[in-house]
């Protein structure tokens, strides 16, 4: 399947705000859905819900020649996550990509799961990062989707970090909203020291408060009230991720077959995955990662400033020293240490 993505200069629009929510969705896809399927494998109808509803990429990985090769004893897992604007996105493009329900992909995340499965590192990749796209010259990293679909995107990211991608998944926004609704809302602990009101008219206080899906979306999108803008928004996203994970994995939820089945059946139709990421793989991964819920490290690939390309595109320049550090950390399973230093 192929993708078309835009090249517009970033602007503080609703579309950019939606990308914040997409990051949340992608994280939940791995940490929550996997754990839910694993915890309830005895429900045949539930394990089949993922298998029946999650869509599969028709074409995922590039040709094997030239791809990074893992050591035989390396049992770490790297997953590429894509966030789709489908069912809630801008809808501005007439040539939307074939991600869940048809939408555009604006978010790329590299998820590293170490061999011990006791933690997970989630690395956001700026869509405007200026990189070498194999066989195509220099472009923004998201251009690989339109230039060669998912295989070229994987080749680009594998070349960037000299690390093999084992799985790929994409998810759209209705999966997020449906999951929050299925949970009956989530209680989020806002770290911001003052109250703030979003453009949608929701007011949030410091400390814990229960949010429905509309309030949660507004919470993770908002940035205008904060002196440090995106930095506080990232904190809000992290607080929300923790809230969803904590709420989903409560004994009350996991012991309620109806609630769990509702969550999986609500979320799984909004997933699209590679053909090796079947229900048994997701279940095994989710179960083995059940102890990682309190060890989720999130960071963004460092950049070396911004500017304009020769053809006038607004871009982020690579921090080549940081790229080398990240590559080494992935290779020797110390990405958790690198993330802690950010």
Automatic annotation (TrEMBL):
Residues 104-247 form the Cell envelope-related transcriptional attenuator domain. Residues 84-104 are annotated as: Disordered. The keyword Transmembrane applies. The keyword Transmembrane applies. It comes from the Bacteria. The chain crosses the membrane at residues 20-43. Keywords: Membrane, Transmembrane, Transmembrane helix. Coiled coil: none annotated. It holds the Pfam family LytR_cpsA_psr. NCBIfam families: lytR_cpsA_psr. Belongs to the LytR/CpsA/Psr (LCP) family. This is LCP family protein required for cell wall assembly.
